């Protein structure tokens, strides 16, 4: 009897602590969303509040009314995410698969070369010099796609381990005996069996592209090529960026610019896709994290 | 024999071809910059180009280490990372143990989902959220908490003394879910029959945690800590650049090696200093990774990276 009671107390205590931590995780997002739907004057008078005194969708109306720059940035983010993730999902398994094959003579050497990139890197200066001075990537769309994000050793290792554990070599051999070539086997035997790992890696890469602001920070100065994150970053650097850069345009419109709440509304628009899709992809994400014992 | 070898290589060719795009990418993206580390020993002059610029030996390094910055950025990078490592172990192991003990499975899932969310959000958005809490006129803390308690508003973005706390809180907030789930999955791997035996022997929850869960989690903890120690020379660039909003008044407590290199290269156009600091980070960082791995291999060979 006593035991049961202490068990219940234990459950209550840990649930209270976890609920508290959950609130700590979520409430900042509530503040973000709430401040985006606060009327500008109320926001200035009361500050950022979890429950605004005066609700208003002006910030969103304003964004939609003068959508140009913002939707463009949104479009660039989507394009970059789509193209980057697609290419990554082609070249990552193409590299990981031969490395998983014990009969591939170079699998050890190449695995090491891949793995070594996780231990040692040239750092920002030579990387920046290379992309800008040799490949002249500055202010081009590929600058948002190619540097750093296209393929990373962690994902290659993740896939390699998956292939090793989930694709029996006998299957490959059987296909070979039937006369199938290596590319055919890769495409028709290995890939269909690898949907879970493709989903996981695609998710990792896609989120990285969606959230990336560093490539834009380093290689893009032309506002026409800003991704959403770079746009947000620029607004952050200069809080009155919109007001100054497009002052004339604003003066023509009759609306008063809701600058503080609009900033928050833009941030909300930036996280919205992730927050909406998150419950659905959560499972794959966690799975990918937890199998990630990465070894050479 | 020779023929067979030839045929063998021919059979390997398709596999080799598959690796070409990926290896080419790594060669360009990762290996060329490693070779480019020599920039640190040059006096770069854009008009002459990278290769034709004059060599200047260790001048860049002498210059760097003569400044106060070299000490400040090293200190900040290491101290913040040490704090993160300690707090992350204590908090995340505790959270993981609690998650594993929650009896209602859907609640456990719910906590897990909520805690992981900050990990998926870009640091730019996090900086916006931090701004909503901290800014001096309309920030939630100044406007609601400070005012309610009758205290004067604090100008967070101009006062360095708060930032060690702010940055630590933001970092823990952002990574707690992720690290906890890694520990949590290690706990799930523990043999359930151990707990059943403990229950038969009359051990309560606390006893089970301290005599089964934690001891069996030890290898994972050690590995995670040592891996993070190996990365102690690298800082979370976004956290230190974006959350303090690049405010000069805060540099003393927010500047790390990564932010220093970025500012020297792209804002101050001081390639010499940037490349010297970068090489310093690459080399010391690499030695630390090797050292940490050596330790893991001694204590727990299964979990060593190589």
TrEMBL record, chain A:
Keyword Lipid biosynthesis: no
UniProt subcellular location: Cell membrane
Keywords: Cell membrane, Membrane, Transmembrane, Transmembrane helix, Transport
Membrane topology qualifier: Multi-pass membrane protein
Domain ABC transmembrane type-1: 74-281
Family (UniProt): Belongs to the binding-protein-dependent transport system permease family.
Protein name per its UniProtKB record: Carbohydrate ABC transporter permease
Organism per entry: Schaedlerella arabinosiphila
TrEMBL record, chain B:
Domain ABC transmembrane type-1: 74-292
One of the record's GO cellular component terms: plasma membrane
Coiled-coil annotated spans: none
Entry-linked InterPro entries: MetI-like, MetI-like_sf, UgpAE/MalFG_permease
Subcellular location: Cell membrane
Gene3D superfamilies listed in its UniProt record: MetI-like
Protein name: Sugar ABC transporter permease
Lineage: Bacteria, Bacillati, Bacillota, Clostridia, Lachnospirales
């Amino acid at each position: 009897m006593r035991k049961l009671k202490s068990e219940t107390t234990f459950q209550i205590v840990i649930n209270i602590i976890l609920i508290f931590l959950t609130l700590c995780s979520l409430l900042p997002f509530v503040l973000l969303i709430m401040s985006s739907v606060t009327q500008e004057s109320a926001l200035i008078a009361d500050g950022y509040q979890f429950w605004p005194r005066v609700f208003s969708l002006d910030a969103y109306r304003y964004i939609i009314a003068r959508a140009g720059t913002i939707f463009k940035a949104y479009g660039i983010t989507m394009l970059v995410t789509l193209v980057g993730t697609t290419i990554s999902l082609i070249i990552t398994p193409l590299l990981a698969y031969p490395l998983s094959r014990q009969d591939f003579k170079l699998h050890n050497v190449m695995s090491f070369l891949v793995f070594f990139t996780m231990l040692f890197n040239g750092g920002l200066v030579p990387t920046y010099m290379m992309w800008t001075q040799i490949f002249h990537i500055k202010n081009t769309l590929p600058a948002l796609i190619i540097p750093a994000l296209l393929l990373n050793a962690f994902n290659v290792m993740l896939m390699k381990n998956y292939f090793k554990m989930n694709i029996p070599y006998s299957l490959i051999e059987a296909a070979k005996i039937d006369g199938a070539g290596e590319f055919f086997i890769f495409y028709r035997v290995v890939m269909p069996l690898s949907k879970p790992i493709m989903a996981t890696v695609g998710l990792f890469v896609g989120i990285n592209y969606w959230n990336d602001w560093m490539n834009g920070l380093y290689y893009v100065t032309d506002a026409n090529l800003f991704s959403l994150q770079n746009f947000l970053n620029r607004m952050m650097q200069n809080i009155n960026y919109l007001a100054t850069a497009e002052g004339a345009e604003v003066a023509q419109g009759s609306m008063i610019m809701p600058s503080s709440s609009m900033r928050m509304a833009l941030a909300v628009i930036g996280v919205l896709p992730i927050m909406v899709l998150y419950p659905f992809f959560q499972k794959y994400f966690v799975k990918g994290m937890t199998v990630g014992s990465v070894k050479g | 024999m020779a023929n067979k070898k030839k045929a063998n290589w021919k059979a390997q060719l398709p596999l080799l071809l598959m690796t070409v795009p990926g290896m080419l990418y790594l060669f360009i993206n990762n290996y060329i910059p490693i070779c480019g580390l020599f920039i640190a020993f040059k006096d770069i002059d854009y008009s002459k180009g990278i290769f034709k610029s004059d060599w200047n030996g260790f001048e860049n390094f002498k210059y760097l280490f003569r400044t106060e910055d070299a000490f400040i950025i090293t200190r900040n990078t290491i101290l913040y990372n040490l704090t993160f490592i300690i707090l992350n172990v204590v908090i995340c192991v505790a959270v993981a143990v609690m998650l594993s003990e929650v009896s209602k499975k859907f609640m456990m899932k719910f906590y897990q989902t909520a805690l992981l969310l900050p990990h998926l959000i870009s640091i730019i958005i996090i900086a916006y959220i931090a701004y909503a809490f901290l800014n001096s006129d309309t920030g939630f803390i100044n406007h609601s908490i400070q005012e309610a308690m009758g205290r004067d508003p604090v100008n967070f973005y101009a006062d360095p003394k708060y930032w060690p706390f702010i940055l630590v809180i933001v970092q823990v907030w952002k990574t707690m879910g992720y690290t906890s789930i890694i520990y949590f999955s290690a706990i799930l791997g523990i043999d359930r029959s151990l707990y059943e035996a403990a229950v038969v022997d009359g051990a309560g929850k606390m006893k089970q945690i301290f005599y089964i869960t934690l001891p069996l989690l030890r290898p994972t903890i050690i590995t995670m800590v040592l891996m993070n120690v190996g990365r102690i020379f690298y800082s979370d660039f976004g956290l230190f650049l974006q959350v303090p909003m690049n405010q000069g008044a805060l540099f003393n407590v927010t500047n790390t090696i990564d932010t220093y290199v970025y500012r020297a290269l792209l804002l101050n156009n001081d390639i010499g200093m940037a490349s010297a600091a970068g090489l310093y980070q690459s080399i010391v960082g690499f030695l630390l990774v090797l050292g940490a791995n050596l330790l893991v291999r001694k204590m727990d060979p299964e979990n060593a990276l190589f």
